[in-house]
Each structure stands twice: as structure tokens, then as C-alpha cells.
Write a structure and sequence with these properties.
This protein is mainly α. Helix content is 80%, strand content 0%. It has 18 helices and no strands. The protein has helices at 8-25, 30-65, 70-102, 116-127, 130-137, 142-148, 151-165, 170-195, 198-214, 217-254, 258-264, 266-275, 278-292, 297-310, 313-329, 336-351, 359-370, 378-410. The longest helix has 38 residues, at 217-254. The radius of gyration is 22 Å and the shape is globular. The relative contact order is 0.18.
């Protein structure tokens, strides 16, 4: 009898459902099993994080150093960032319009949750100037940036290194590229090995997540009862952006069936959704773009790492919905000019968000202060953050994959899908 072998994305889907179900069933005994299951999930996350920095560095350097000429390099860079800007603006507009129409904030009362540390971090973030953020992009010690996992300085260094590799003698340039390509192949082989264990990691992460939340089911129900409409509006906004706007862009600009594209990147999206981390899905997004969709190494290695860092459209949608929600809750109708200001501020603030847990909530505190709105609701957003974090991360990852095939098609590449 032939054994039934499930595709990896089906294994991930089953693992997610099974983890959520068992986490809910055994939530009362979380203290007994939580530490062990959480450890299994942490091992998977550590393994993914272990390869992210080397992969970002190697792929970005190769993406630049293997480009045939500086004109194509500049052209691809312009198209990539143009895509980021357009999708960021569209995401903010979708969030604003959906929230204005559905008006979830009216009649809402704030939840009392201690948000002291979040507000302190937000105040520190707000006090940093634009020049401070620009300075931070240039690493004073690249090895410190590698050890701390600070992505922006690593990408900056990688772009410079890749560019200047193209300026050295052809023989030495070929030698360096061969070495980097060998290392990159080894990292990709390691990535494929780690991803085999993704169903186990996803199962553990989701089971702990649900078990921890469901153990205080009374508080969870109360919070969800009060703010369910807000969560629903966030999901609707994300679905409009990810289910309508981006597929239309893929169909028109990449001339690719959105359904076929989604099927090819399903596993990467499952990893992003279950871990609430776009970086965890980065290795899969790159390999899917190159191997399943036929995107060249130059474009995939350039657009995907940059997109994971800069193209946070799911977060932008969330921030816009949340700010207008608070304005509605306190009875303040934002004018058209204020909403335009919110769109611009949300894009800039999300781009400069600190790489810390609950960064979206910290960014929201900064935006609320900038718009002259009270930060009393931050505790509520902390309590329900996980309900919005997973889908917005999925949208971020989906948009990054879209950028790769759209830029590749604009460069005249023949895609496999």
C-alpha cells in the first residue's frame, strides 16, 4: 500500500488547526505543558532567525554584484521603491476609507490594561529625530549590527559592498561572487532542511499562543466583546488590500494569475501568519520566487530582503484603522486634511518603527500623540494585538512576493506561472 504524502503547505495548515484546537482544549493545564511546547516553538524560531541575517546579507550582496550594468541596478531599485511607495499609500487609503465607512469607534470604551512600558518606549521613539533614524542606518560597527540583528544597517552595508564588488577587477569580482554564491547555496540548503520541520514549529507556536490566551478565557471574552468590531474592521481592511488590490496589481502588472501565485507561496504565507514574523518567511519567499516563479536571482535577492524591511503595508493598514478608531471613540472627526496627514505620518512612522516586541503598538502610540489623540487606548490595543498581528504579517509577506514578480515582469523576464 502506497503511503500518503501530504504537501508541506497542507502539513502546515493541519498543524495550525491542530495546535489551536489542542491549545484551547488543554488551556486549563497550560502550566503543565506550556514550558515544553513553548521550548519546541522557540527552537524552530531560533533556527529560522539563525539563517535570516546570513541570507539577507548574501542575497543582497549577490543581487547587486551580479547585475550586468549599473543602469539595470538603478532601474530595478527605482521600480522596487516605487512599488513600495504606491502600495503603502494604497494600504493607508484602504484603512482610512474602510474605517470611515464602518465607524467602529463610536460607543466604545477603553480597556484598562497596564501600558506603562509601551508608552515609555513610544516616547523615546517619538523623541528621536528623522536625522537620528538616518544616522542609525549607517553602521558604526557592522559586526555589532550582525550580532544584534539590526536589518537596516546590514542591508545598507550589503548594498554598498555589492556595488563596489562590481568596480573591482573582473577576475577578482568573479572569485568573490563564486564564494558568495557557494555560501548562499549552502544557506539555502540549510533553509530547506529547517523548513521541513515547520509543521512541528507552527503546531507548537500556535498551541502555546492559544493556550496562554484561552487560560484567561473570561478576560479574553470581555476584551473581544468590547472591541470585536475593531478587529473585524482591521480584518476587512486587510482582506480588501490583500484580496482585491494586490491581486489586481499582480494580474495587470505581472500578467500572472493571482490564484496561481497564491498557490505557489502558500507555505511562506503560513509561516508568516503562524509566527507573526515576515522575517521567518523570508527564506521561503526568496526560494519560491526563484524556483517556483522563475524570478531571476538579481531581482529576487534585491526586492525580497528590502521588501521585508520596507514594505509593511499590513502594519500601515492597522495603524490607520486604529488611529481613526480612537478619534471616533473620543468623538473627534478627523478632517480630510488630517486624514491625508495621517496617511503620510503612518507610512513614515511605520518605516522607522523600532525592532522590538509589539512594535506596532509602540508605533501607534507615536501616531496618536502626533495626531493629538489620547494614548489611553494603548492598553486595549496591547490586549488584542495578537488578533491583528498574524493577518497583517501575512499581508506584509504577500506584498513582498508580489513586488518580486511585478518588478521581474517589468524587466521583461518570463515567469513560470
Amino acid at each position: 500500500m502506497k503511503a500518503i504524502k501530504l504537501a508541506l503547505h497542507w502539513q502546515m495548515g493541519i498543524a495550525l488547526i491542530l495546535g489551536a484546537t489542542l491549545g484551547f482544549i488543554f488551556c486549563d493545564s497550560y502550566s503543565a505543558w506550556g514550558n515544553v511546547i513553548n521550548g519546541i516553538g522557540d527552537i524552530f524560531l531560533h533556527a529560522i532567525n539563525m539563517i535570516v541575517i546570513p541570507l539577507v546579507f548574501l542575497s543582497t550582496v549577490l543581487g547587486i554584484s551580479t547585475m550586468t550594468d549599473s543602469k539595470s541596478m538603478g532601474r530595478i531599485a527605482v521600480k522596487t521603491f516605487l512599488y513600495f511607495i504606491v502600495t503603502a499609500v494604497l494600504a493607508a487609503v484602504v484603512g482610512v476609507i474602510v474605517t470611515d465607512v464602518l465607524r467602529p469607534g463610536y460607543g466604545t470604551h477603553k480597556a484598562e490594561v497596564d501600558a506603562g512600558e509601551i508608552l515609555k518606549t513610544a516616547q523615546a521613539t517619538e523623541s528621536s529625530t528623522l536625522m537620528d533614524k538616518i544616522v542609525d542606518i549607517v553602521p558604526s560597527n557592522i559586526f555589532e549590527a550582525f550580532s544584534s540583528g539590526n536589518i537596516l544597517p546590514i542591508i545598507f552595508f550589503s548594498l554598498l559592498l555589492g556595488y563596489f564588488i562590481t568596480k573591482i577587477h573582473a577576475n577578482r569580482q568573479a572569485t568573490i561572487n563564486n564564494v558568495f554564491e557557494s555560501f548562499n547555496d549552502a544557506i539555502m540548503a540549510l533553509t530547506n532542511f529547517i523548513i521541513r520541520f515547520a509543521p512541528i514549529g507552527i503546531f507548537a507556536i500556535v498551541m502555546v499562543l492559544v493556550g496562554k490566551q484561552a487560560s484567561d478565557i473570561g478576560a479574553l471574552k470581555e476584551c473581544f466583546r468590547n472591541f470585536a468590531f475593531f478587529v473585524i474592521v482591521v480584518w476587512i481592511s486587510l482582506i480588501v488590500m490583500g484580496g482585491i488590490v494586490l491581486p489586481i496589481m499582480v494580474g495587470l502588472m505581472a500578467q500572472v494569475s493571482p490564484i496561481k501565485h497564491l498557490k505557489q507561496i502558500y507555505s511562506a504565507l503560513m509561516v508568516a501568519f503562524s509566527t507573526s514574523s515576515s522575517y521567518s518567511a523570508l527564506p521561503l519567499i526568496i526560494s519560491d520566487a526563484k524556483e517556483k516563479m522563475g524570478v531571476s536571482n538579481n531581482i529576487a535577492s534585491f526586492t525580497v530582503p528590502l521588501g521585508i524591511t520596507f514594505n509593511k503595508i499590513g502594519t500601515i493598514v492597522y495603524e490607520c484603522v486604529a488611529v481613526i478608531f480612537v478619534a471616533q471613540a473620543v468623538g473627534m472627526d478627523l478632517t480630510a486634511a488630517q486624514q491625508v496627514s495621517l496617511i503620510g505620518a503612518s507610512i513614515v512612522t511605520v518605516l522607522g518603527a523600532p525592532s522590538v516586541p509589539m512594535a506596532g503598538v509602540i508605533t501607534l502610540a507615536v501616531l496618536l500623540a502626533a495626531m493629538g489623540l489620547p494614548t489611553d487606548y494603548i492598553g486595549m490595543f496591547m490586549a488584542i494585538d495578537i488578533l491583528c498581528d498574524m493577518p497583517k504579517t501575512l499581508l506584509n509577506a504577500y506584498s513582498v512576493s508580489c513586488s518580486a514578480i511585478i518588478v521581474a515582469r517589468s524587466e521583461g523576464e518570463m515567469l513560470k506561472i
